[in-house]
Each structure stands twice: as structure tokens, then as C-alpha cells.
Amino acid sequence: xxxxxxxxxxxxxxxxxxxxxxxxxxxxxxxxxxxxxxxxxxxxxxxxxxxxxxxxxxxxxxxxxxxxxxxxxxxxxxxxxxxxxxxxxxxxxxxxxxxxxxxxxxxxxxxxxx
Length: 114
Known about the structure:
- This protein is mainly α.
- About 80% of the residues lie in helices and about 0% in strands.
- The mean pLDDT is about 90.
């Protein structure tokens, strides 16, 4: 496969995962049918554990820095695994975190070390 195509495909998948995480968080906080009374502290914690790593991951893709991708994955992993056991669509947070890892591995395979 052409190297440029792999780079574009990896970035497209990574940006899609980042944006999907942010959109899922918006649904989780404002339109959650399972918990209509989500507290401000819960919204803050989920923002810190899901949205900020998504933004950091997108930044790492723009800068082409694999260590930033790894940091975003490690940061989001614990809360994403917790969200996997929640009902409904919110288990997709686990999938987006897994995609972060896949993108990190793709960067490493193409030689981006730091």
C-alpha cells in the first residue's frame, strides 16, 4: 500500500475517533436517557477523562507525534473501559479508545517514534 495513503487513512480514522468521542460525550451529558439528572461533577470528570484526551489525540495527529497519541490512549483507557459496561451507545467509548491504540501502532509501524 502507498505510504501516503496509509498516512491519510490513519489520520482519517484517528480524527473520526476523536470527533466521535466528543459527540458521544455531548449525548452522554445532555441527552442521556439512562441518567437524566447527571451532576455537574460527573460532567466535569467525564470531560476530563474522555473529551480532553480526544482533543490531545487530534493534536497528536496534527503534529504527527506518536508519544502524544500514546498519552491520549493511556489517559482515556480507564474511563473508556468503565464506559464499555454501561448500557446503550456509550459502550462505543471503548471502541474509540481502541482506535486510539490502533492509530498509535500505525504511526509506530511507519516509523514515527516520538
